[in-house]
C-alpha cells in the first residue's frame, strides 16, 4: 500500500454531493480492521523483541563468564612465561642453591666456609637456616636487634660490617680488655703504627 497524498490531492471514494452509506461504512470498517491488525502485529513484535533481548542478555553473561575465565588463564600463562624468561635456562639446581647460600652468607655476615654448611631447597629455607646458624654461633645479624645486647647505652647504628667473635676456651695470656673493632681496613689503619718512618 502506497503512502497517502495530501487531503486536497486525494481522490474521494464517491462523487461530491453523493454519499453512499455502505461505502462509507465499509471504509470505516476497513480502517478500523487495519488498525486492529497493526496493533496485533506491534504486540507480537514487542514480544519477539523482548525474547531476543533476553537471549542476548543470556549470551552476553555466558560470554563474560567465559571471557573472565579466559582472561584469568591468559594472566596465569603470562606470569609463567615471565618466570621462565627470568630464569637462566642453563643454571643447574646445585648452582642455584650455591648462589643462594652465598647470598645468605653475605647478608648475614657469614664466611664462605659457613655458607657451605647452610641447608635448604630454596632461598627462604637457606635464609632461615642461616639465621639459626648465626644465632647458634653468636654472630650478630645486621639489621636485627638481639635481646641480649652487651652494649650499654650504645644506640648508634653503625654501617660497619658485622663482627664475628667466636667464643674460645683457649687463653692467650692477654690481660687487657677485649675490644671489638670493626673489620674495616681504613679504621684498622688508625690503630697500626706507620710502616715507613
Q: Structural class from helices and strands?
A: mainly alpha
N-to-C CA distance: 124 Å
Report the β-strand fraction as a percent range: under 5%
* General form: rod-shaped
Query: Spans of 5+ residues with little confidence (pLDDT < 50)?
Result: 148-153
Give the C-alpha Rg.
47 Å
DSSP, total strands: 0
Mean residue pLDDT: 75
The SSE string, one letter per element, is HHHHH
SSE layout and pairing:
Blueprint: H1 21-86, H2 93-108, H3 112-117, H4 123-136, H5 185-189
Helix pairs in contact: 2-4
What's the quick description here?
With 197 residues, the chain is mainly alpha-helical.
Fold and architecture overview:
It is built from 5 helices and no strands. It is mostly helical and 197 residues long. The relative contact order is 0.04.
Keywords:
single chain
Amino acid at each position: 500500500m502506497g503512502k497517502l497524498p495530501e487531503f486536497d490531492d486525494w481522490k474521494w471514494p464517491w462523487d461530491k454531493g453523493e454519499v453512499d452509506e455502505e461505502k462509507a461504512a465499509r471504509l470505516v470498517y476497513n480502517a478500523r480492521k487495519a488498525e486492529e491488525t497493526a496493533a496485533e502485529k506491534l504486540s507480537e513484535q514487542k514480544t519477539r523483541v523482548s525474547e531476543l533481548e533476553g537471549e542476548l542478555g543470556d549470551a552476553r553473561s555466558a560470554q563474560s563468564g567465559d571471557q573472565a575465565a579466559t582472561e584469568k588463564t591468559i594472566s596465569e600463562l603470562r606470569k609463567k612465561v615471565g618466570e621462565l624468561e627470568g630464569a637462566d635456562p642453563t643454571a643447574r639446581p646445585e648452582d642455584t642453591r650455591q648462589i643462594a647460600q652465598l647470598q645468605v652468607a653475605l647478608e648475614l655476615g657469614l664466611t664462605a666456609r659457613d655458607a657451605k654448611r647452610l641447608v635448604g631447597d630454596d632461598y627462604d629455607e637457606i635464609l632461615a637456616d642461616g639465621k639459626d646458624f648465626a644465632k647458634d654461633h653468636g654472630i650478630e645479624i645486621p639489621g636485627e636487634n638481639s635481646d641480649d645486647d652487651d652494649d650499654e647505652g650504645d644506640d648508634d647504628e653503625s654501617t660497619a660490617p658485622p663482627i664475628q667473635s667466636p667464643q674460645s676456651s683457649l687463653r692467650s695470656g692477654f690481660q687487657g680488655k677485649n675490644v671489638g673493632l670493626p673489620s674495616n681496613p681504613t679504621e684498622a689503619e688508625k690503630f697500626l703504627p706507620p710502616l715507613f718512618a
